[in-house]
Amino acid sequence: xxxxxxxxxDLYQTLADFQQTHLLKWWNDLNDTEQSQLLxxxxxxxxxxxxxxxxxxxxxxxxxxxxQKAERATRPATVVRLEERNTSPAKSEKATEQxxxxxxxxxxxxxxxxxxxxxxxxxxxxKGMYPxxxxxxxxxxxxxxxxxxxxxxxxxxxxxxxxxxxxxxxDETVDYFQQHQNFGMSSDDLHFFKQGTMPAVDxxxxxxxxxxxxxxxxxxxxxxxxxAALKNNGMFDVMREKGIDTLYYHQVDNPTAIVxxxxxxxxxxxxxxxVSVKVxxxxxxxxxMGIVCDVDQKTQIIEYSDLPDDIAAQTxxxxxxxxxxxxxxxxxxxxxxxEQIANDDAxxxxxxxxxxxxxxxxxxxxxxxxxxxAIKFERFIFDVLPEAETVLVYEIDRSREFxxxxxxxxxxxxxxxxxxxxxxxxGWLQSCGVxxxxxxxxxxxxxxxxxxxxxxxKISADAxxxxxxxxxx
Length: 473
Ligand code: UTP
Hints:
Layout: H1 9-17, H2 32-43, H3 47-54, H4 56-62, H5 66-70, E1 79-80, H6 82-87, H7 89-104, E2 108-113, H8 140-155, E3 161-165, H9 170-179, E4 190-194, E5 197-199, E6 201-202, E7 210-212, E8 215-216, E9 218-220, H10 226-232, H11 235-242, E10 246-251, H12 262-270, E11 275-281, E12 291-295, E13 298-302, H13 309-312, E14 325-334, H14 335-342, E15 351-355, E16 359-360, E17 366-367, E18 374-378, E19 391-395, H15 398-401, H16 414-431, E20 442-444, H17 452-458, E21 469-471
Parallel strand pairs: 1-19, 2-3, 2-10, 3-4, 11-19, 20-21
Antiparallel strand pairs: 5-9, 6-18, 7-8, 10-14, 11-14, 12-13, 15-18, 16-17
Bound molecules: uridine 5'-triphosphate.
Residues 113-120, 127, 164, 166, 195, 220-223, 225, 251-253, 406 line the site of uridine 5'-triphosphate (UTP).
């Protein structure tokens, strides 16, 4: 195929060099706007990088596979176990106090990653809009924002929220916040920033797929795309100007995450860690969670799909899982540390994922694959861990803090998250001495009480409630 007349010659040469000229097959059928949109997409693609990432054997041969690495995995060095916290309350209280001081000094910002496509859930809007509150169907976004506001109120200092979106979620997310007056947050404290995209390639040929004649099939570049996105959108500058040096990272799918948990912040500071990670004890060797371990004295996360079964099943002398620490993807990062890595783009690797990607074929017909046909390239934020001098691994109570919405049904679904919220709120009321009917449905806005301690200050034991019960601002 020769270069279309209206197409830049140098870019055509690049496409030819990387065997991607098929992307222009329908160029002459497109109108001016469509041509310009396709051109913008093409100009944003690093074709050499795509070729390097696709070339399967080459990179794999050069570097050690995660499964090989897992052979040398040991338990992480710097750990705070849940039992230790429960049995030494004085230490935990001290950490909480320290964390509070960080919040009161305005040194903490929160990062929410909400750019994912949420394909397993199959909800037709950004996942953060999913109604999850047991009584009011409060959305994931609202629950998390209200927690942040409650925490800021406690600290007497605003906490900035840095919310990562993607092409897949940006417009709807921003509209949704606007329609709801930012759920009460001042727009000075709310920063949306959009992550980048990567094209999907045909798994067999490495050719970039066209979603339509005028559009390349692209998807968000993974939660690890956050680093480049923070940098490219000037977010590190905003943080510096605001005096924020500690970043509380969490995902949009977990409504029971304790946003800006003071105790965790305190332990992070005490450990002088660059990164901290909240973990839970894995339920079974084959539970689908990334494990946190040390390899060659570097703390890191090995994905469940990369962990050989026999290593996942290893136990210690007491019969406990050797690799017990499952990552919840709740982190604290020091801003300086993240910025350093963001300044050197090559430091965070890309991973390949085999996915079903709808596209058009050579004759322009729409194809909706039933089996994975394509490779998507994604970066994972947890790949920054081995770059850190010290990583604190901090165990939490799963039933209280880790109830993600991943699937439409079954485990980690809206139903399990909904039940978890109901169980947590009912438990708080019961610990205040309140008697509830066995099947009570309860929702407590963080603005009424962010935790059990706050609730105790507001509720008397003889309070009478009927179900469903909503306690709001
Ligand atoms: P998941 O890995 O669970 O992906 O994201 P997902 O997109 O929500 O769901 P599936 O895999 O398509 O079913 C974990 C967190 O990382 C964010 C998500 O929004 C979620 O908060 N994420 C993921 C991004 O912000 N960008 C991405 O490119 C991928």
